[in-house]
Amino acid sequence: MSEHVVIIGAGIVGATTATLALRAGYRVTILEPGSPGGEQAASYGNGCWLSPMSVIPPAGPGLWKKVPKFLADPLGPLAIRWSYLPRVLPWLARYLWAGWTEAKVEAAARALRPLLVDAPALHKALADEAGVGHLIERRGLIYTYENRAQFESEAMAWRIRRKVGIEWLELDADQMRQREPDLDRRYTFGALVEEGGHCRDPGAYVAALVAQAQAEGATLRAGRATGFRIEGGRLKAVLTEQGEIAADRAVICAGAHSKPLAAAAGSSVPLETERGYHAMVADAEAGPRTPMMPYDGKMSVTWTDRGLRCAGQVEIAGLEAAPNWKRAEILRDHLLRSFPGLPRDLPAERVKFWMGHRPSMPDGLPCLGPAAASGDVLLAFGHGHVGLVAAPRTARVVLAMLQGRPAEIDVAPFSPSRFGG
Ligand SMILES: Cc1cc2nc3c(=O)[nH]c(=O)nc-3n(C[C@H](O)[C@H](O)[C@H](O)COP(=O)(O)OP(=O)(O)OC[C@H]3O[C@@H](n4cnc5c(N)ncnc54)[C@H](O)[C@@H]3O)c2cc1C
């Protein structure tokens, strides 16, 4: 009888991990309280970017100087709710420290790059096998700026990207106009990263991966994991609200909700949620030819099969607080300013707002590795801003860990115990 692996959570990390575990011969149960890739998952509403160049962790040198602004401006691109500050302080201190120097940022980028490189091709193969190859496209990704000076204000990030092997093409005003006729003329400079891709519908993609896994023999169980029965260091069962599921191995892929599950397996990890939003316009009259990120909007703009989606914002306010839809309105308004061909008086019924939870570690790197109480339980969460792009390589790493062989990349930077838990 093959080993039984319970995959906890059916976002993109759980879906890709389940797929590979199944094909490696494990008996797989996917445990998920919602629908796979449904609106409850970060994997549903993200920016759709398969961006191997997203190696720069969120915090950088000097960010601490802006903390008063993050607290004072509840609608800024990064905001911290006052009421949540006491709870998040230890995480915030580690977050700021993780980006304290350029050397620290470069070390994070070097760790992250192997997890992201080739992501569009890895996704394409998985999507093809699930019959949804059309959902993965590789047309590059563009960062757009009003002028070169804005681009140069991010010199450190681009310098580090170059050092880790990322290449880009610089586009002048003429080239921008030719490539992106709908884009507002104030953007006169662009950096095109040709190795980037995007997913036309991440929610549908996750659902298709899980459906394919089911067709190949995986079991999907509706339910929420609550803990583990571990005896003598060996996993016996995953505990759920509906009772136990006997299991030989388990992988915690519950995104931003993974912290109590990791604790139940003996690992204390500083996982937080960086809440994010999207606004999506149905039947949009204008938009980018290539998915793009306007510098001043700090958001991605991407065509999806459900509409023109702009996604972004970072709000530190925990898992429980109600969404602040003004943040999604800011994204929408910025979209309208970026693409003058969109109607100023866009009817409300054509715009859909969404809020979701990035599962974020302070250093911008995921937790991949065994739980403290039992090596039978693996942690695979905490991908923050890059969970979609990182998922297929993450799944390959987790499979190697399940099989007890060395992973194909250096996983030491992702150790779940790196913060001492
Ligand atoms: C606004 C925004 C934009 C983003 N843009 C991008 C982007 O362009 N590119 C990119 O790579 N990343 C992006 N991200 C990040 C990315 O979406 C996440 O890192 C990624 O989706 C995390 O995937 P996951 O599978 O770990 O978690 P999730 O997708 O959140 O899935 C976790 C699943 O676990 C389930 N679950 C929770 N608790 C339990 C439990 N106790 N038992 C069982 N199941 C449970 C949940 O229901 C959920 O379905 C963005 C995120 C946001 C919010």
Radius of gyration: 21 Å
**Would you report the number of β strands?**
21
Major sheet, described briefly? 6 strands, mixed
Strand order of the largest sheet: 10-2-1-14-21-20
Which class do the helix and strand fractions yield? alpha/beta
Structure ligands: flavin-adenine dinucleotide
Please report the distance between the alpha carbons of the first and last residues: 34 Å
Percent in strands: 25-35%
Query: What characteristic shape results from the CA principal axes?
Result: globular
Helix content: 25-40%
Structure description:
This protein is α/β, with parallel strands linked by helices. Helix content is 32%, strand content 26%. The protein is built from 13 helices and 21 strands. The strands form 5 sheets. Strands 10-2-1-14-21-20 form a 6-stranded mixed sheet, covered by helices on one side. Strands 4, 15, 17, 18 and 19 form a 5-stranded mixed sheet that branches. A 4-stranded mixed sheet has the order 7-8-6-16. A hairpin with a 2-residue loop joins strand 11 and strand 12. Flavin-adenine dinucleotide is lined by residues 8-14, 31-34, 40-43, 46-49, 224-225, 253-257, 261, 276-278, 300, 311, 356, 358-359, 381, 383-389. Residues 8-14, 31-34, 40-43, 46-49, 224-225, 253-257, 261, 276-278, 300, 311, 356, 358-359, 381, 383-389 line the site of flavin-adenine dinucleotide.
